Amino acid sequence: MEILIAEDNTVSQKLLNKIVRQMGHNAILAKNGKEALEMLKKNNISMVITDWMMPEMDGVTLCRKIREAEFSSYIYLILLTAKDSRKDALAGFKAGSDDYIIKPFNHDELKAKIRVGERIIKLEDEHKKAGVQLVQSEKMASIGQLAAGVAHEINNPTGFVSSNLKTLSDYQNDITSLVIEYRKLVTDLNDCGLKDNYPSAIARQVERIENHEKEIDIDFIMEDINELIGDCKEGTDRIKKIVIDLKDFAHPGENKLKNTDINKGIETTLSVVWNELKYKARIKKEYGDLPVIKCYPQQLNQVFMNILVNAAQAMEEHGEIGISTIQDNGCIQIKISDTGTGIAKENLTKIFDPFFTTKDVGKGTGLGMNVAYNIIQKHNGTINVESTLGKGTTFTIRIPVDRE
Ligand SMILES: Nc1ncnc2c1ncn2[C@@H]1O[C@H](COP(=O)(O)OP(=O)(O)O)[C@@H](O)[C@H]1O
Ligand SMILES: [Mg+2]
After folding, report:
1. DSSP secondary structure string, 164-210?
2. Which residues line ion ligand 2, judged by CB < 5 Å?
3. Is 340 in the pocket of ligand 1 (CB under 6 A)?
4. Residue 395 C-alpha to ligand 1 middle, in angstroms?
5. Which fold has domain 258-400?
6. What is the number of the ligand closest to the CA of 387?
7. Residues 103-133, buried b or exposed e (16+ Cβ, 10 A)?
8. Which residue has a Cα nearest atom 18 of ligand 1?
9. Of 43, 51, 12, which is closest to residue 26 (Cα–Cα)?
10. Any ligand 1 atom below 6 A from CB of 176
11. 2-105: in CATH 3.40.1260.10
C-alpha cells in the first residue's frame, strides 16, 4: 500500500522511509503538511505518518484537514509527537488521528502500529465493498419490480394485438377469395363476346373497376397484405418473448422445493426448446447416474433453457451442443457446451450482468444469464463459463447434493 510520510527532519524522514519499505509498502515523502495534502490528492494513499511540528502546516492541522476532505477511501493517520504528554496525544485524536507514537520511537513499536493500521484499512475496505454490494442488490430488486410492472403493462396490449392479427388474417383470406370471384366475373363479362351489347351502365362500371384495379395495383396488395400480417405476428411473438424474459427476471419460476432428477429436468427442457435447437445443432448427451436432489426444478429448467437457447443462437452454422452430467465430490455437475461463436475475453465477466447483451435490439434482453446466475446462487451452487472465440463456449454448473 502507499504510505505518506510527512516529516521535515531529513534524518527522521530517511529512517521512516526505510521502515515503511522494509514492511513492503511504497513510501511517498512530504516536507510539511501542505505538501502532504497535495500528495494525497494526487496519489492513492492509505496511511499517513506525520510529524507534529513542521513548517507551513503542522501535523495536527494536517490530520484535521484530511478528515475534513472527502477522500474516496479511509486514510489511517499516525501522529509522531515529540513530547511525552497525554494532552498532546488527546489533541491528536481530537484532530482525527487514529494513533500516535512518541519520538524517539522504538522501531518495533512503530511497525506494530503500522500493522494495526493495515488491518483497519482492510476492514474499512471490506465494509465499504459490502455497502456497495448492498446498494447494488437493492437497485437490482427495484429494477426487478419495475421490469415486472412493465412486462405486465406490455402483456395486455400485445395479447389483443396478437389475437386481432389472427382474426384480421382470417378476414383477409375471406376478402381475397371474394375479390378473386369478382375479378372472374369481370374477365367473364369481357370474354363472353357480348361486350358491345351491354347496357352502358354496366360497361362503364366494368371499366371503372378495371381502372381502379390498375390504380391501386391490386395484385401487389393481395400479395403484400399477407406478408405484412406475417411480419406483425412475428413482432408480437418477439414482444411476448421479451415479456417472458422480463417476468422471469422479476419472479424466476415456481418457488417450491421438490425432489428432482436433474437428468429428467434437462430432457423436459430439451423438448420445450427443441424448435429453437433442431435446425442449429445436434445434441450429444452424456447423462451420469445422479442422486435425486431437493431443489426448485422449474427454476433450474429455466437455467438450462437460457443456456441452451444462447448456445443455439451462437451457432453461425450447424454445430453441436454437448450436455453432460456427473456426480462429483458431493455436487451435481452439469456441463453444457456449444461449438458457437464463443465469447470475447472482455465480455466473459459481463455476461452475468443484467441487461448485458451483444445481440441486436429486440433479439436480446441480456437477462437470461443474470437470471441463471441468481437461480444457481439460490441453490448454493456455482456457474462458470469458459470460452474461446471462434471455437465455442462451455457452461459448468455445480449444485451441492445436500444443501443443509
Ligand atoms: N453460448 C454462448 N455463446 C456465445 N455468447 C454467449 C453464449 N451465452 C451467452 N453469451 C453472451 O452473453 C450475452 C448475455 O446472454 P443473456 O443474458 O442470455 O442475454 P441475451 O441472450 O438476451 O443477449 C449474450 O448477448 C452473448 O453475448
Ligand atoms: Mg439469452
Report:
1. HHHHHHHHHHHHHHHHHHHHHHHHHHHHTS-GGGS-HHHHHHHHHHH
2. 310, 368
3. yes
4. 11
5. Heat Shock Protein 90 (3.30.565)
6. 1
7. eebeeeebeebbeebbebbeeeeeeeeeeee
8. 368
9. 43
10. no
11. no
Q: What's the number of CA atoms in the CB half-sphere (13 Å) around residue 22?
A: 13
In this prediction the pTM is 0.53
Q: Cell digits for 53?
A: 511540528
Q: Could you identify the atom of ligand 1 that is nearest to the CA of residue 311?
A: 1
Q: Specify the ligand 1 atom closest to the Cα of 341.
A: 4
How far does residue 384's CA lie from ligand 1's centre (Å)? 13
Would you say the CB of residue 372 lies under 6 angstroms from ligand 1?
Answer: no
**Rounded to whole angstroms, how far apart are CA atoms 7 and 79?**
11
Domains of the chain, residue spans:
2-105, 146-250, 258-400
Which pLDDT tens digit goes with each residue over 23-78? 999 999 999 999 999 999 999 999 999 999 999 999 999 999 999 987 878 999 99
316-350 pLDDT, tens digit per residue, is: 999 999 999 999 999 999 999 999 999 999 999 89
CA distances from 102 to 32, 50, 85, 88, 248 (A): 18, 12, 9, 10, 62
According to DSSP H, which parts of 192-286 are helical? Answer: 200-216, 218-250, 262-277
Alpha-carbon gap, residue 240 to 155, rounded angstroms = 7
Amino acid at 37: L
C-beta atoms surrounding 14 within 10 Å: 13
State the distance from the centre of ligand 2 to the C-alpha of 400, rounded, in angstroms: 25
Asked if residue 314 has its Cβ within 6 Å of ligand 1, the reply is yes
